[in-house]
Amino acid sequence: MAHQDGDHWVLNGTKAWITNSWDASAVIVFATTDKKLKHKGISAFLVPMPHSGLSLGKKEDKLGIRASSTANIILEDCRIPLDNMLGSRGAGFKIAMQTLDSGRLGIASQALGIAQASLDCAADYALKRTAFGAPIGKLQAIQFKLADMAVALESARLLTWKAALLRDSKKPFTKEAAMAKLSASEAATFCSHQAIQILGGMGYVTDMPAERHYRDARITEIYEGTSEIQRLVIAGQILKEYQL
């Protein structure tokens, strides 16, 4: 919630799961300035960090992306100047939706990196690890896994590039961003899983990077909207197109 008090806005509330919260120099807060207007009563604010009235919760002990701090942000009578509002009053929801598409492109790119690293790790291991007098990369079962990983990776990469091109061309890319995020995150999970299968026991220990890739991949199907949400966004955009 946010209310005006003289020449300041006063912010109150808590937001969970804030990535890089302990390392950020500022935070963008979306707060309700008029309950009666529902989503049209949400405004955006820039709050520098550290700042009086803003505190952080404990760092979460996460499955993956452990180099990135994640914690709650707590606002208790946090006062900021009126000029710290971003855009006009009530424009917060629109701003959030506009940035969400670009955020999904960022997650897709992150997921592509994980998928590529998983393929690199698996292919390198398949060439070096020998069984029955030959590299395991000569086994059909291993080759099938590598082929499936490469197809998933390149398909997701092309979707991501298409969405990025549309964004750079200032064209609508909501559907394509959701498709890229969905495809790339599922490719990251798939490729990291297959890499562990190829490495066997070595994929389960920290001596090799495969287990880290597997842990890091999981979040890409969750933040900036779960895979289920991406499918809803994609379907909604498709139906809109066919209604025209």
TrEMBL record:
Fetch the InterPro entries from UniProt. Answer: Acyl-CoA_DH_CS, Acyl-CoA_Oxase/DH_mid-dom, Acyl-CoA_Oxase/DH_mid-dom_sf, AcylCo_DH-like_C, AcylCo_DH/oxidase_C, AcylCoA_DH/oxidase_NM_dom_sf
Q: Which GO terms describe its cellular component?
A: mitochondrion
Residues in domain Acyl-CoA oxidase/dehydrogenase middle?
A: 2-78
Record keywords, A-Z = FAD, Flavoprotein, Oxidoreductase, Transit peptide
What superkingdom does the record give?
Answer: Eukaryota
Pfam families associated with the record: Acyl-CoA_dh_1 (PF00441), Acyl-CoA_dh_M (PF02770)
Q: What GO molecular function annotation could you give as one example from this UniProt entry? A: short-chain fatty acyl-CoA dehydrogenase activity
Designated name of the protein: short-chain acyl-CoA dehydrogenase
- BP GO terms, sorted: butyrate catabolic process; fatty acid beta-oxidation using acyl-CoA dehydrogenase
Q: What is its EC number?
A: 1.3.8.1
Q: What region holds the Acyl-CoA dehydrogenase/oxidase C-terminal domain? A: 90-238
